[in-house]
Amino acid sequence: MNFKIPFVPEQASTMARDVDQLTFFLVGMAVFFTVLIAVMVLYFALRYRRRAADQVGSSFDHSTLLEVTWTVIPLLIVLFTFGWGAKVYFRLYRPPADAVQYYVTGKQWMWKAQHPTGQREINELHVPVGQPTRLLMTSEDVIHSFFVPAFRTKADVVPGRYTSLWFTPTKPGRYHLFCTEYCGAEHSRMIGWVTVQEPEEHQRWLASVPVQTAPAVAGGELYARLACGNCHREEPGLAGPPLHGLFGREVELADGRTVRADEQYLRESILRPGAKVVAGYQPVMPSYQSQVTEENVLALIDYIKSLEGVAR
Amino acid sequence: MSSEAMAAERPNYLNATTGLKSWLLTLDHKRIGILYLLGVSAFFVLGGIFAMLIRLELVTPAGDLVQPDAYNRLFTSHGVLMVFFFLIPAIPGVLGNFLIPIMIGTKDLAFPRLNLLSWYLFMAGGTMALGGIIAGGVDTGWTFYTPYSSTYTMTAVIPVGLGVFVNGFSGILTGLNFMVTIHRMRAPGMTWFRLPLFVWSHYATSLIQVLGTPVLAITLVLLVFERAFHIGVFDPTRGGDPVFFQHLFWFYSHPAVYIMILPSMAVISELIAAFARKRIFGYHAVAFASIGIAVLGFLVWGHHMFVSGQSVYAGTAFSLLTMLVAIPSAIKVFNWSFTLYQGSVSFQTPMLYALGFIGLFMIGGLTGVFLGTLGFDVHVHDTYFVVAHFHYVMVGGTIMGYLGGLHYWWPKITGKLYPEFWGKISALLVFVGFNLTFFPQFLLGYMGMPRRYHAYPEEWQVLNVLSSAGASILGLGFVLPVLYFAWSLKKGPLAGRNPWGARGLEWETDSPPPTLNFDEPPVMNHEVYPYADGEPGSTSGMKPASAH
Amino acid sequence: MSDIHVVPVKIYVAVFLTLMVLTAITVAVAFVDLGALNNVVMLGIAVAKATLVVLFFMHVKYGTRLVPLVAAGGFFWLLILFGFTLSDYLSRGWLGAGTPWMR
Amino acid sequence: MSTAHPAVLHHQFDTLEQQKESATLGMWLFLVQEILFFGGLFMAYMLYRWRDPQAFAAGSHELDITLGLVNTVILIASSLTMAMAVHSAQTDKNKALVRYLVATGILGLAFLVIKYFEYSAKWEHHLVPGPNFHFPELAIDGRAEIFFSLYFAMTGMHALHMVVGLVLLGWLLVPAARGRFNSQYHNPIECFGLYWHFVDIVWIFLFPLLYLIGRHYHGAV
Ligand code: HEA
Ligand code: HEA
Ligand code: CUA
Ligand SMILES: [Cu+2]
């Protein structure tokens, strides 16, 4: 679709079209029922308007057939609607496996983004067109919400955990980014831009930004500074389990449960280590809650992800 | 005329006793209804003034009229006052209180003292909230989401939260009172299926009040504790989960939207029956639909949290159930519309409101179904689309019903007739102003305009100006009734027992009714809404419509 | 009112003694290691005790049909709150990384 | 009209029977409301315990099981005396009614006194959430706080209900002593009894959930 449909924002992601199609269906359904009821009401009201002061209505006051009709037909319609909506929803929240991951941190009242290659931006995010892009997001204070109307997607950004969102931009351009969860005085100024660039242009842009250390590297430095290595090395036998090859694996816990070592788990392991104790280890790891920022945690996670190996 | 004049001189609940004290200590459900009328009207005017300031700010894209934090206080105060202190107590407090005992043919509610206490709790809660709003204000949005409300804001969350808490108990006690009354106090012959639909719908409302409101109460207690003592249940830095607050909040607040709409639906059923002079089509279906809404309404709260980080699987279940809760509403709309078929339809003011209700509630409800559709909601959540949806159901739905009901029973409550011409003008203004205010907001929302924004990108100005223009028409539409109702108290012609030729026990007693409602304890010896069969209690020989 | 159901004192005392025994059992069981079963027993006993109180001390066994319905309704609604809220937390991890809160 | 009404029959009712049934139903609806009110707290308890069973077990270990048990016995005994009070009213035994009410009150007070000692011990051991909170086991510090928050919120709400109950009890004692209640009319006593038993039931759940879970934790919930 290349012409501009009134009141429909720019379609700039692979999902935009899907969402709009759902919308058109919904609007069609609503128009149908609105017209149906309006015509029915107006026609009956005028056709059976009171012509004499003492006139009363008829005694026709129930019909099982009608009752069933107007229960079952709307029911089928809404079930269909539900199914369609759920399909789109799962696509909206299940990132493709090859998505490139960016980190986004919300704080009153700005968006901080970090590229996998280390570039940082504030209230801006530059991404190449056509690249499946996943944002791993958290907040340093209250709940925010990351919303790009042109991409038809949003997700709340919640302190204390990670949420994520993905999109594949289809059109170069600058698109509004809004915070849609009320977050305090400057909520309406917590806005920014997502800039979608042609791949070459994006490369040029990346090169032009002074590269700070990539998160994984920064994480490695932190790892050294916080002396994590005192307990975690590649070879087993220290106080803590080796972290090599940990990411994505199932971890057995002391209480018999198993959990998958995803970002959320790594984060919790660093900030609240005792909550999930690895089987075979003592809960001696101190909490780093007060020593690291959200960005530090992300860097540490990236570093741990980069530790390849099959230790254990 | 002379018999009407006589009726007005007879002792009634208004002139039975006099003096301020006789009002402030009254146990008469009808007087308490009037006390509610005064209370909720005051809160409505305040909430309305806040709304006008919001719309004034949004005329220009730059945030130039008020500072951002003042704006945040405006919409929060607007939402809190309108929802908790106007819309939820309005119809049950005023019309429910006044009418339920009369409609079921008894002398009063089961617990008159409790009823008075409810009003005082409502006023006390309102005063606390208002105190908080004046001294310090509150800027969390009416939803009080943590951790902003618990840890970050500097505003008066505690007094406002406690105000809502206290007011909650007012609602719980009212609901309890209604339920016991409906169960235990019905006149002889008044079986469940002879109850007016007004009563059924209020019964459903009461169920929600009793089952839902306590969860809000404890949630607010936890919020206050969190704020005062940092207990950590909603604080991620102490291991709490802020999203848990949303679960607790919406467990109440979604059903609460049905606390708002069911009483209005109650009114609409009565209006349509009276002005189509016909028994409501599918009486049983409509009655059960009320209960269905109340019960299913408890199973869908997660639809406010589709993008909150709630599990997508839970979201899916909530979406499915949301679809189901739309069905009983659909059943009601179809039955009301079909009642007009072979009716004897007249277009006095209350009926205009009722017809307006059907149209606007339907649009609001259908857009509710949009929002319940997962893939769609992700895009429009927390945008003006949602704002438009809920004003369509709350203003286009509930307030239309409330105003229609006030007009319809005004003669019964006061014994006086309001001026029909001005009534129609105001109904028209409200309808037109309302659509102009809120329809553009659907478009704004789909285009991406977030809610709770005090400034916005320029490309959205035109629609915002339209919306603000509509709001002023709407405001005018709301001011008019205040004026002519006041006028009618002094100058309005006497109403007589049954100015509409309507059926129902309330029309078989004086206007205004005597203190104990009936001279003789009534007996219900016929079906409800007996328009077609000229049952006892009818005015002289009405003819069926099919007879012409 | 002749229709008041006066519960014999014997029943009250019997209920009281049963409650005491159940309390003793819960405490005793708490010191025996049954693994996850500890919770089941503990809650089972609490439910049993509550039921006794409701049925006899609170006269639900003797009241009109409506009262047990109301009481059961209250507990049922509580289960709605519990069930749906937990359904969120229990299923958060299912869609892969990033979505879960904590399992 | 009023001549046909016995003095204890309120004007809105036709018969004493109707009045009694209304009062009972009203009281039960109120209790349903209470169930959901406490339900929010139980929900929070369930969620956070499921999330961090270790911290909850450790926190529970710090509670005094003996005092908890004594209070359980006291409260159940007070339920018995309350039931007996209703029984006495139903059988026109006015003296016994007053005696049982007083006994119920004394047991209730005893409960609160013990609760007070428990609370102050927690205060001394720095187990009250807030800046002074300090848990003995280091690895749990910072995680057990939420257990104690819920402990205080839940037992605090329960204690508040006890206080309200005691006030109501005192207020009922006056007409009871004056012989206002008899087999014909004893709604207030009966409704109060329902309330009192309800508060007992809440404790029946609180006791195992708060005191008894910490005995041997291996990690599973
Ligand atoms: C009176 C109040 C009221 C009422 C009655 C409703 C009714 C409904 N609401 Fe609404 N809602 C609110 C008040 C109300 N709502 C408020 C205040 C909010 C925002 C809170 C906030 O965040 O601040 C909100 C938000 C809200 C959301 C969350 C949006 C978001 O934040 O992203 C959702 C999502 O599902 C929703 C859905 C529904 C549905 C499905 C109904 C249904 O009950 C509607 C049923 C009615 C009909 C369906 C119409 C009649 C039927 C027909 C004409 C026949 C044809 C029908 C079909 C084919 C189905 N509402
Ligand atoms: C019952 C509920 C109810 C009612 C009746 C209304 C009525 C109105 N609302 Fe409100 N609204 C809410 C409930 C309600 N609202 C809620 C819950 C929110 C969300 C808050 C939040 O985000 O937390 C909200 C938010 C909200 C917003 C979004 C703010 C934002 O997100 O930034 C807007 C914007 O246009 C708005 C506008 C209006 C308007 C123009 C009216 C008009 O209909 C009002 C017209 C009425 C009058 C004008 C009063 C009558 C006047 C008199 C009797 C005399 C005095 C009049 C004057 C001096 C002008 N409302
Ligand atoms: Cu950040 Cu709103
Ligand atoms: Cu809802």
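^ dinuclear copper ion complex. The first helix of chain B runs from residue 2 to 9. Chain B touches chain A through 106 residues (CB under 8 Å).
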